[in-house]
Each structure stands twice: as C-alpha cells, then as structure tokens.
User: What shape does this take?
Amino acid sequence: MADLTRTDVIKILAVTDRARLAGVDLAGLDLHGLNFAGADLIRANLTGANLSSAYMRGTSLEFATLDRAILVGANLKEANFKGASLQGADLSHANMSDANLFQTNLQGAKTDGVTGQVR
Assistant: This one.
C-alpha cells in the first residue's frame, strides 16, 4: 500500500521546486501528467505506478524501483536512473535524452519509440 495518495503528491509538488520523496512508497498510484522536474525519488517504490506523460526532467531516481511502471510519453530528459529497476516498465515514446541508465535493470522493458541518446 502506498505511503501517499495522488492528492498528497500533488500538494507536495505544488509547494516546492525540488520535491523530496526519497524512499517513499508510491506503488500503484496514478501519477500521470504530474511535474516531478528535479524531484528526489531516490530509492522510491514506484512499482506499477502510472507515470505516463509525466514531466520528470532531471529527476533523481537512483536505486528506485519502477518495475511494471507505465512511463509512456514521459519526459525523462536528464533523469538519473543509476542502479534503478525498470523490469517490465513501459517506456514507449518517452524522451530519454541524456538520461543516466548506468547499472539500470531494463529486463523486459518496452522501449518502442524512445527518443534521445542515453548515457
């Protein structure tokens, strides 16, 4: 069960430029279209979360769990996924320009139409 609701997350994102959500359990939440730019989601649990069309430019997702997450059309430019798990995630049509995927587990992830060069 997630630590926060979608409404809680919207409130947090509304009051700060760089939301601190490190280690938070957001598994299974519908977070589509939200602006997480520059947020700290290090070690967060986003298993099965819907992040389609989310704006996540420069978001810190190191060692986060995004297994089976839906990231269709998300802006992941310059996001840091170092050591994260994206097993079975749907990254279709996501912008991953300059995203850091060092030691990221992408086993079974859907990457159709992903744009940008990753580092």
In short: The chain has a mean pLDDT of 96. The helical segments are 6-15. The chain has one domain: 1-119.
